[in-house]
Amino acid sequence: MRLRFILGEVANGLRRNSTMALSVVLVTFVSLTFVGAAVLTQMQVQQLKDAWYGRVEVSIFMCPPNSLYEQCAGGAVTAQQEADIRAVLEEGSVADLVDEVYYETREEMHENIVAADDTGVYSQLEAEDLGPAFRVKLTDPEQFQVVADATSGLDGVEEVKDQREVFDNLFMFLNAATFVAAGLAAVMMLAAVLLITTTIRLSALSRRRETTIMRMVGSSKSLIQMPFVLEGAVAATAGALLAITGLWLAARYLIEDWLTGSIAWVDYVGREDVWTVAPWLLVIAVGLAGVASFATLGRYTKA
User: Residue 236: which residues within 8 A CB-CB, separation 6 or more?
Assistant: First the structure.
């Protein structure tokens, strides 16, 4: 009987304040969509880092015959200098950071450059104009600077480059997108809390006579307040479910169908990641509704 009464009061409250309840649903939907998008974007950044940072290499370019770099004033790298550089990588202080060392000859480098040149800029380049290189795969790509410091000052080394630089701008953009989405989510969540508070206040004021009678006949405070709390929770949960549905559809059709078909070599977040985020969105929705409701009810459900 008590449960039926509470559910009936919840239904009546939502019907009486249907416009405000719908506003709560929509604002919660938008805010939690931004929250979910921010979390998924950060998951994508981490996923890309795990996938790409493990593949990138440190490239140690050695002096070609006519280098303009000051450290190559002595001319092209010699066989002894190459051996010294390899020794530092394989036997020196950074040996435990090095997973694999590949030696790229002048001819191989020339072939790779020409193959990747679609503009013809390097068509006149000869293999003799280039220096060889060591391609170094690290056990921990984050330790690039340690390897760079150990090798950049060696005789015969023209330049040390980390391929992570290619991805840094992309990661910076994605991280910025995460912060923007999180900021918008915070603003919209504040709006959701205010709307829930307003909805509960209007509902409590419209039924003040009823709640007064209930208190006079001995109804507990929890019984009086529970319908109002559930009204906010139901509206917020509906918004959360819409947000989860929107994120799932975006993952299904925008990411898995469109993006994966366009750029297949990227490991994207997908529907399973949405299901990972979904329970937290529901918890946030119910938590927001609970906080807003109890902050309001203490005043507006007094006899």
Answer: 24, 25, 28, 192, 196, 285, 286, 288, 289
